[in-house]
Amino acid sequence: MNHITSNKFFRILLLTLGVSAVSCDFLDKMPDDQKTMDMVWKSQKETEKFLYNIYASLPDPNSMMWSTIPWVPVSDELDIVWDRYYPTSINVGNWNPTTNYYDIWSACYKSIRASFVFENNIDRCFELSDNLKTQYRAEAKFLRGYYYWLLLRQYGPFVLVENELDWTDDLNLPRTPYDECVAYICRMMDEAMPDLPLSWRSSNPTWLGKPDQMACLAVKSQVLLMAASPQWNGNADYVDFVNKDGTPLVNTAYSEQKWRDAAEAAHAVIEAAEGTSGEYAIRLYRNDENNDGAFNPFRSVQDVHLVKWNCECLWGTTKGDFRNVERHATPRPGGYSGLAPTQRMVDAFFMMNGRTIDDASSGYVEEGFAVSAHPNWTNDDVSEIRKRNCWGHRAGERNMYANREARFYAAILYNGRPVPQVAPEDRDLFSSSINRDGWGRAEFYSDGMSGSGSADHSTTGYTILKYVNYDSNPYRGQQSAWRNGIYIRLAEIYLNYIEALNEYDPSNPDIKKYWDLIRSRAGLPSIFDTYPEIKGNTAKQLEYIIRERQVELCFEGDRYFTTRRRLLSDKVDTGHAVDHRMYGDNGPLYGMNIAAGGGFTAEDFYKRTVIENRVFEKKMYLWPIPQHEMDRDTQLVQNPGW
Q: Model pTM?
């Protein structure tokens, strides 16, 4: 096995970590400055500071998604207008191992190294109680496993280092086979779990953001679902993916057991959640179960991202800085208007009757303008917008946005829709002179207030509303109450479970049970009531499961990894016309015609238009290992195609 136990390896890594997000002096000086390290373990405060700095390299899952965390803008769900940020280069194929885009390799290994140092030295701190030492060791193991998970999902097989040994160990270290990487991450979760509470929400809310048993179980679900997916389960393209000594890095034989393992892991999360009750119950967020009146699907799907540490969050982070997201998603003059959902993402949302827009029975109409409002637009009063007492489309808006599901209106701002994150007194500031009627509607057409006449504009004729709190007012520099970022939520686990079950037991009643819970929360009928012919058919159910993930988890980073692990990114969707395709990352990507002007009723604006011709090659299923890492370790092999 290529498990590496090398302290010397970590020393070399330490010398090359200038890009790390970790800033603690202790991590920079250990173990060369023994005096400094001795000081760490003499004080509870300093020992805990060391632990918290291991957390420091964890990503903020939402903030700066256009420039820091790449998964949303390099997927097929979003485009950004700013060429200066690296996702634009990736999308046109202009990258290689020397560009070092989103290079987390060194930062992750630095944190992994620190986790070993912490675990091996914590007993030297006599100011800590035995209970805290046990808990902190578990946290370090979880973090070690999670950093390895970040490496695995981005780069594939990594160099597995399991502990500290002698400084004289060999520095040239090979990669570890994929299945062994998976097993180690799961082992770290299993070892951490017994010494952590089920949930910090109920045991000690002041420590929310730390891992607990629910987080351990949820990470295992993510890891094992990816391991079971076609990219890593029976993928013949990786038959020659081997170390320099010929050791295969991927087992290319298909295994149904991997799907069973993935289903079992997801079910373990669900079972643990269903064992909770009362004030601290873990469940899908619904507004009526959280002191917010009668059930409202719009409030429910929106507030799961706005109410801090709510009942659906399985693991989150205190790095919940949404100020930048709200500003970059808000149209001018209050924001930068540059987080642009693609037409493919807009098309993915269901109609309010639960049908897809390409279903002749859905009621979808692409041309013209709505004569009447959405059934849930119950009070056509501008003052009701921020109160969220009514939702849906208004009469006069484009038909293609009419009568869609609640998740659509919670996630997408389209041309002519009132901008909700604007105070009443500022609404006319968002309108051209011909539209100053107090509604403050988004003007994405070319000569509109948020049109393409400025460097800051939507490339598709849409911006994100998901994550935007209506009580914010970016124009005035006002932000709503702080909330946490979410790494994993229960809806994802439900989707993991039904996807895994579908692969080997497509008639299992749990598929309907948990799928129905997600759709019911969104105000939609069961998929099996809408499309009864798909029941029990693995291929047909999978098509709708992937679509449900696309909608439910939009802009959360899942779409990038789903299309990669399911090997959909290099495929051509032949089931739809080119401008209606639902997957395939190579070729034209569509939006509205932002070059057209003339107001909200200009027909030319609502024409599907190519916004970018994207490039995807098979090698892009994995991120390239940075060349400077390849140069340092002569035993590393590069990912296929790079």
A: 0.94
